[in-house]
Amino acid sequence: MASSITNTNSNGSNGPSDQDVETSKGADGNKQLATTTTVAAELESSTKPNTLGAIILQTLGFRKKDSMDLDGIATQPSIWDSENVEEYKKSYIHPQWENWASFDPSFRWTWREERSVRRKVDWTILLWAFVMFACLNVHRDNISNAVSDNMLDDLGITKGDYNIGQTIFRVAFLVAELPSQLISKRIGPDVWIPIQICIFSVISGLQFFLKGRASFLATRYLIATFQGGFIPDTILYLSYWYTGTALPIRLAWFWMSSQFSEIAFGFASVGLLSMRGVLGYAGWRWLYLIDWWNPRGYFSDHEAKIIVNSVIRDDPHKGGMFNRQGLSVRQIWECTKDYDMWPLYILGLLFGLPKYPVGQYLSLSLRELGFNVVETNLLSIPYIATSCVTMLAITGISELVNNRSLVAMAEDAWLLPCFVALLAMPDPISAWSYFAISTVLLSFPYTHPIQVAWTSRNAGSVQNRTVSASLYNMFVQASGMIGANIYQDSDSPRYKKANTGLLVICIWMCLVQYPATWFYYRWRNNTKTKIWDAMSPEERDDYRQNTTDEGNKRLDFLFAL
């Protein structure tokens, strides 16, 4: 089953007053679309059976198990229930949309059937996305394991060269984001993603033959170039299978694959790095060579109809583009200059900045403090396992309180006291004290999945959602690029200047940036609501039918806070 758009439901928070579903005969599709999708999303979120998010909340004790009739009708209200359905098909469904055969507005299904199909999609689609992302993270992060086996000395390169390599990787990854997304939109993610995986896996294996600084920098650039865009490409693909309310928690599991891969590879690297001397080669070379090899689901017609109709009822815009349809330069530019998305881009740039230096230098720091190669790699596992728990917990809390601005602040709030502890450590540094503090620091609740879903919800249109996914991730990559150069040799081994700056960033994010983002979107919503409430019913009808406002600029669209 393939669909036609790029991300999750375009609706943010609940719309202004008078957001009821209009189904009068002859009503225009544009008039009904925004209101109907909002109501449908509300109904689904209030009546749907257990999702992964609900399971998390139940496990944490925040929510009781839902009691519901699994044989009740799960089909949600939509504009497709209108008498004008044939007109809407012409208005909102592209003639080349791949799912015409499965699309049936009169089709009905039960919660039991939907739950079964969702579970099947989870195990056949989400699982492989999970595996593919884990594969990417192994190739992206195995350098931290390699440097613990004296790779820098073997290649005759310095920490400065290592920083340059990491910067080149981030720059190439960032630059490739949007072009890769556009290629994926043109030829389809089902074609482009496997191509990406094959190419960067082969290049990663070729790192076995590294000879020095030039080959090290070249492979960092090439791997990043073909990995860039993989994340928004995969989110695009997942959006073909899930409704807007079902996707965010899947993204949390998607990103958790990074932690799982790090845990598994942390154990594997112990054995691989122990191969130092085999055939006369260093252990880190075997790490890269063996690591290069890493690796669609079938649905009945009935199951395909459930998937297609649940997704298109949730957001009729998802039929507006077909799987191989690209975006024009004008569309890209209009989306890029959407000022309402920039608060989220700024968050993407700053929120994770403090964590990068500590994580990047953990292996080197532990080695310098006297731990051997095996101990260093095993000591990196506890924080990875803990971060899986904290990420799922913060995702569950975000769903429980229906808030993003204040919940997403948790990551920087967690990091703040840890940097205070790092700065307060007495000289000489105790190896186990540093390990304890850095482990707690790196066990932070990862809020990136929350913010990706937040960006998607506030985009308000298919085109904007496509571009904003890439732009947000580009800012995150820029953050990593900056973070790769914060720790300098002149500030080692305590890095007091750097850690002081990172502490200031944590304070700024908690006291200024996140609250300012919340106030901005609240102000935008209040401004829209004030204008909307001042309109008469006739004026609102005229607005719905004739407005030139699009996406998140419509008065009947409110931003998620």
UniProtKB/TrEMBL annotation:
GO terms for molecular function: transmembrane transporter activity. Residues 1-15 have a biased composition (Low complexity). It is a multi-pass membrane protein. This is Major Facilitator Superfamily. It is found in: Membrane. PANTHER family: MAJOR FACILITATOR SUPERFAMILY (MFS) PROFILE DOMAIN-CONTAINING PROTEIN-RELATED, PERMEASE-RELATED. It comes from Geosmithia morbida. GO terms for cellular component: membrane. Signal peptide: none annotated. Residues 1-31 are annotated as: Disordered. Its main location: membrane. SUPFAM superfamilies: MFS general substrate transporter (SSF103473). Keywords: Membrane, Transmembrane, Transmembrane helix, Transport. Coiled coil: none annotated. It comes from the Eukaryota. The chain crosses the membrane at residues 191-210, 222-243, 263-284, 339-356, 376-394, 406-425, 500-521.
